[in-house]
Design a protein that fits this description.
Bound molecules: iron/sulfur cluster
Number of strands: 12
Strand content: 15-25%
Structural class: alpha/beta
Radius of gyration: 21 Å
Helix content: 40-55%
Distance between the termini: 8 Å
Order of helices and strands: EHEHEHEHEHEHEEHEHHEHEEH
Number of helices: 11
Length: 288
């Protein structure tokens, strides 16, 4: 059986950057706290935890004093920077440059919206760390839409400045814009979907079609991982979601000629390689 690793799967540059900042800072001194899991991948978080990274939630962060805290690629709202300054916390800021730029654009749009009674609308997942950081730029007043259909509830008498969480699907973001236009709402839509993810669905669809079986590797908490897994599964029903090599079931590969291994923007390459090694040792055994 031929096993192929998808060359385009694996960390996006924002996550790559955050992981390299964490490793560099862990080499200087410990402990290094991280506000939330550095990446939505349990295996990578475990690897960094073994090196001394301590993941804390926002409640624990607020109680810290005189220490160093890493901000992950998703970014944080202004409140986090205020708490750090009050508690003598040195922030190591690994916010992805794409997210940082989006935060700044939303902050600017929010200040402008006070002149025309505008509504700042973010198409994204409620409670997601990136969305919390974006909403923080508006004093938490933005309207968050999780599904395009929710756009029917917006006030038609006020103009909308629309943004999307960076990992949203371009097609569903277009649907939001269509609904607003149909309702004759004045809308300015910022193209805020990250280029690292916008072409990924099409690439993975054709990768999934090219193989008999697909192993899709991702952390279970990754929304990008869930969405891309669905894309692969729709193209190839023999697509299996796994988070670690131990989850491979040998029965998936009977009479299979080719298997493709791919993953999300939060899936480390080293994990993809471990899955490939494990698969090769399985198929060289009793599966043919
Ligand atoms: S998906 Fe894009 S915006 Fe999000 S962390 Fe990666 S590079 Fe940055």
């Amino acid at each position: 059986m031929k096993v192929t690793l998808d060359a385009y799967s694996g960390f996006c540059f924002g996550v790559e950057l955050a992981v390299s900042v964490a490793e560099r800072e862990l080499g200087k001194s410990k402990p290094l706290y991280c506000l939330g899991p550095l990446v939505h991948n349990e295996m990578e978080v475990e690897r960094l935890t073994r090196k001394g990274l301590v993941v804390v939630d926002h409640a624990r962060f607020a109680a810290l004093r005189d220490c160093r805290v890493l901000i992950r690629a998703h970014g944080e709202p202004p409140e986090t920077y205020r708490i750090a300054s009050e508690n003598n916390i040195e922030l190591i800021d690994a916010t992805c440059p794409v997210v940082l730029s989006l935060q700044q654009q939303i902050g600017m749009a929010f200040r402008e919206s006070s002149h025309n009674q505008g509504q700042i609308v973010i198409f994204g997942k409620k409670g997601h760390a990136e969305v919390a950081g974006l909403n923080g730029q508006t004093g938490n007043t933005a309207i968050i839409l999780e599904h395009p259909e929710e756009a029917v509830n917006l006030d038609p008498s006020r103009p909308v400045h629309l943004f999307a969480q960076t990992t949203r699907e371009p097609e569903t973001y277009s649907r939001v814009q269509e609904i607003l236009k149909k309702r004759s709402i004045a809308v300015e839509a910022t193209d805020s979907i990250c280029r690292q993810v916008s072409g990924q669905s099409d690439r993975l669809r054709s990768f999934a079609l090219d193989h008999d079986v697909i192993l899709f590797i991702s952390g279970r908490e990754s929304s990008n991982g869930r969405a891309l897994f669905e894309t692969c599964r729709q193209a190839n029903e023999r697509t299996y979601f796994i988070s670690s090599p131990g989850e491979i079931d040998p029965s998936w590969f009977r009479n299979v000629e080719s298997t493709g291994i791919c993953g999300a923007t939060s899936t480390p390459k080293w994990l993809m390689k471990e899955v490939a090694d494990q698969l090769e040792s399985i198929v060289s055994g009793d599966v043919s």
